[in-house]
Amino acid sequence: MLTSPRQHIISSVLAIVIAIVLASLLASALGAASERILTVFFISLIAVVGMGVYSGNSGILSFGHLSFMGIGAYTASLLTLPANLKVATLPKLPDWLATTEIGLFPASVIAIMLTVFVALLIGIALGKLEGSAATISTLGLLIIIHGVLIGWRDVTRGSQTFFGIPRETTLWSAAIGCMFALIIARLYRDSVSGLRLRAGRENAIAASAVGVRIRRERLVSWVLSAALMALSGALIAHFLGAISPKKFFFTDTFLLLAMLIVGGMSTVTGAVTGAVAITVVTEVLRRFEGGFSLAGFEMPAVFGTTQIGIGAIILFAMFRKPEGLAGLKEWEERVFSRPHAVKVTASTEQPTKDTQPLIAKGMTMRFGGLTAVNDVSISLRPGEIMGLIGPNGSGKTTLMNMLSGVLEPSSGKFHRGKELLSGLVSYEIADRGIARTFQNIRLFPNLTVHQNVLVAALSTKGGVNAAARADAALERMGVIGHAHDDAGTLSYGDQRRVEIARALACLPSLLFLDEPAAGMNWEETDSLMETLRMLAKELGIGVLLVDHDLKLINQLCDRIAVLNEGHLIAEGSPSEIRNNPAVIEAYLGPNKD
Ligand SMILES: Nc1ncnc2c1ncn2[C@@H]1O[C@H](COP(=O)(O)OP(=O)(O)OP(=O)(O)O)[C@@H](O)[C@H]1O
């Protein structure tokens, strides 16, 4: 399933095919030099989009992808190298490999399969790392695989050139490979997995809280990107006819990353833009590297002109367009307007069937020497609105974080019916019907409002009826008119509503709201109160509401629990809580009137 309009995908695919065919025909007409430049460009572009599939969608920069290109290149070359040459130059190869001599296509397929297998093993290990730790470990990967290519002399000829590879890569085979890679990358970006990964890139905690298994999605994109790198490696080896480990090390990593960063990591349009920009700069500057004469002046040769030029274009892009020359949207997302066809059906927004209360006992959270929540026991029934109040720092958010799986409690358990929920992580809890919003809004700001909500619907309850669920939630919260605006561009109040809509798209039976009215004016707060009442009454959703607005809490809540310094000091109806001496003391202090 694809998460963007069909019109976008069709126009994107058509543009890819037409541009590649036209460029190839033009290069063929211009002669061998142009053909050669375009062939290398196509092969580089496969690698750039390959890197983009992982780095662009996950937000984790990888320095290690050239390793996969190297594995692909050497594997395919070992399979296509003439048997007599293998016997002469690699005498210690096992017999079965020495005598194998197949064409580029089957060799590429095998090379891709082997690379995918290696990437899977590495990806499972790397998946445990986040942010810069993940990036640095990809650097380790590059160095290790480079070391293996050099050290495994019997198979790779070590640091010497691996020569005699049949030059089977033509302009048209590179063009077809490039077309394939661009289309795969484009489809992946808008697939369910791609959307989930982009949500995780924008905000990992929020993505997990709406059911996204970020590690799994990262692994999918890692493996897919490795496959594209292997294809690029196989093609370049069979274009050059000779390779060595240094071809798959720092220099080309820098060049390909420069293309990706300059153009924009998060789109296929960006990868193409960056590859074009860097290729043009490289080709132009290379001609001046050896010196030139201009209007009678002899300019001297300047060593490194090309590298200086690439460095300058990276600096320019970072200063002027840090998200890349092509920005954060695909070209067709900018060009075509998107009237939103609402797909609400009768089967969406059914009243919840969960009638069991959530029961939490002895919930405790220690941060080092601080006990933020101390032995708190509460319960929440479907259909009721329960307020959770207390002075600043009394542990309200921490309690909510534990009950939604964002934090693992130091001790204490919570369950619903017979199902023990403590010990589950947040995407598992979201899938069991407990959804939440955050005190500091955690939307996916560079995704549209519709995508923000759709990703939640797709990632919970098996993704059944996801589009209709997303629309119903947007409509319920009054933000369907913003469906195709980027969530980060909305007013504060609208962002809060989108966050609630995103939680509703999970079809929760319990909804945790952390200061949902913060930043709203009284009119917006009134309308929010009305909506929450309807959610509880019509859909039977239980609401746990943290807020400092005691008027809102008193008017809305059936029951109120009060925390002070991590302890539950009172629980009861609004009137009981208003007259409770412990609560008055916690809020006003012991010596106040
Ligand atoms: N990740 C953390 N690491 C260390 N201390 C934390 C962490 N999260 C919260 N705390 C501390 O735990 C205590 C309770 O914080 P918490 O945010 O739960 O309170 P709160 O009642 O929600 O406050 P507020 O009303 O200001 O949002 C505070 O002293 C806070 O500094």
From TrEMBL:
Any one GO molecular function term: ATP binding
Cellular localization per UniProt: Cell membrane
Database matches in CDD domains: ABC_Mj1267_LivG_branched, TM_PBP1_LivM_like
Source taxon at top rank: Bacteria
Keywords noted in UniProt: ATP-binding, Cell membrane, Membrane, Nucleotide-binding, Transmembrane, Transmembrane helix, Transport
Transmembrane segments: 12-31, 37-54, 66-85, 105-126, 133-151, 171-188, 219-243, 255-281, 301-319
Membrane topology qualifier: Multi-pass membrane protein
Xref: PANTHER family: AMINO ACID ABC TRANSPORTER ATP-BINDING PROTEIN, CONSERVED COMPONENT OF ABC TRANSPORTER FOR NATURAL AMINO ACIDS-RELATED
Protein name per the record: ATP-binding cassette domain-containing protein
Ranges of residues in domain ABC transporter: 358-590
Native organism: Pseudohalocynthiibacter aestuariivivens
InterPro entries tied to this protein: AAA+_ATPase, ABC_AA/LPS_Transport, ABC_transp_permease, ABC_transporter-like_ATP-bd, ABC_transporter-like_CS, BCA_ABC_TP_C, LivM-like, P-loop_NTPase
